[in-house]
Amino acid sequence: MDRNLLEKYAEIIVKTGVNIQKNQIVVITAPVENYEIVEMISEIAYKEGARDVITNWVDERITRVRYLHAPDEIFDEVPEWKKMFYLENVRKGAAYIRLSGSDPDILNGVEQDKIIRSNKAFGEALKEYRERLMSNKNIWCVASAPTKAWAMKMFPDLNENEAKEKLWEAIFKANRIDREDPIAAIKEHKANLKKSVDFLNGLGLRKLMYKNSLGTDLTIELSENHVWLGGSDFMKNGIEFMANLPTEEVFTLPKKDGVNGIVYSSKPFVYNGIVVEDFNITFKDGKAVKYDARKGKEALKSLVELDEGSCYLGEVALVPHESPISQMNILFYNTLFDENASCHLALGEAYPICIKGGENMTKEELEKEGVNSSIAHEDFMIGTEDLNIIGLDKDDNEVVIFKNGNFIY
Ligand code: ZN
Ligand code: ZN
């Protein structure tokens, strides 16, 4: 891979992604395989004035071994030191970088029950951490770097080096790092997303109605005080950051009990190291009441049944079918990329920032606004080239939003 491009990418993660401030702590969560870029990110972060850069290495092959062989009761426990690791840093205002690069099949064959219990235990123990990130009280950015297993899943006909090389190319392209001036290209891209955001916010929509030839026929109500967001994220004090690199979506939240109809997936979705394919979900008054999948139904079941909120939606996101990632026409088996190639929805927690003033509301106030809460937040892709979305405004006028997979304007 081109080291020059790698350095540009690392720089964008630090300066545009988390927009690191003087004296701030940075926590990087990354696969052990991503050593080279983590070293670069750390160096740039220190040069930009970071107080400390803490690396939270993960190795999912070890995680798999643990799931297979550790005593059963361990999956209900979260050690105090681990809890403190998250809470201490998050309370000190740390910025969080995560490099996502999972093997999509890593937990095949592991008992779902252990994964669910472990997710629940961590979800409850790290509630404060999660809530602070979801409401932009701490800066966070998810970016990506190839791992062997992930690259080989995407390009099974190539050898390891070729596959990783090809995946790097795709990551650079998706992030506009291959452009002559990536920073200017990202700036221009953010301005374009802002146009979609302004268009949608200007309409004051009450409902969205989705239809395509897969069989999707879904109506999503929006809360009166919903806000569409996209491109940059902002902290309360005005500091700008980008929570996802890349990002192509504009998004808001659905009214928790206002989703009805059926929706079909348009791409596989990886949940807990298991690929879920060709699935559909039926919603009634917001709740997923029926679902089926050709592959990975057990994993889908474990998500829907995870907690009270994981069977409700927490995000509605629009991504044009002609977005650059979608045009690459490759399946990443990684939500960070696949969600940015397709209109999607998320099961689980909604972002309070998608309600006017939501970041300062109590849990009860958010509930009244129809904001869903859950320890899960999982995007799944539903966009197709023939997806049509019609909106209804306050006076029940129909407005075409998406025609044949793309924004109308
Ligand atoms: Zn999204
Ligand atoms: Zn999401």
List the helices and strands and how they pair.
Elements: H1 3-17, E1 25-31, H2 35-47, E2 52-58, H3 60-69, H4 80-91, E3 95-100, H5 112-125, H6 127-134, E4 140-144, H7 148-154, H8 160-174, H9 182-203, E5 205-211, E6 217-222, E7 229-230, E8 233-234, E9 240-241, E10 250-252, E11 254-264, E12 269-271, E13 274-284, E14 287-295, H10 297-304, E15 313-318, H11 324-328, H12 335-338, E16 344-348, H13 363-368, E17 377-381, E18 388-393, E19 398-403, E20 406-407
Parallel strand pairs: 1-2, 1-3, 3-4
Antiparallel strand pairs: 5-6, 5-18, 6-11, 7-10, 8-9, 10-15, 11-13, 12-13, 13-14, 15-16, 16-17, 18-19, 19-20
Helix pairs in contact: 1-2, 7-8
The structure holds zinc ion (ZN) (2 copies).
Structural description of this entry:
- The protein has 409 residues and is an alpha+beta fold.
- It has two domains: 3-174, Thermophilic metalloprotease (M29) (Thermophilic metalloprotease-like, 3-Layer(aba) Sandwich); 195-234 and 247-407, no CATH class.
- The protein contains 13 helices and 20 strands.
- The chain has helices spanning 3-17, 35-47, 60-69, 80-91, 112-125, 127-134, 148-154, 160-174, 182-203, 297-304, 324-328, 335-338, 363-368; strands at 25-31, 52-58, 95-100, 140-144, 205-211, 217-222, 229-230, 233-234, 240-241, 250-252, 254-264, 269-271, 274-284, 287-295, 313-318, 344-348, 377-381, 388-393, 398-403, 406-407.
- The strands form four sheets. Strands 5, 6, 11, 12, 13, 14, 18, 19 and 20 form a nine-stranded antiparallel sheet that branches. A five-stranded antiparallel sheet has the order 7-10-15-16-17, with helices on one face.
- It starts with a helix and ends with a strand.
- The mean pLDDT is 95.
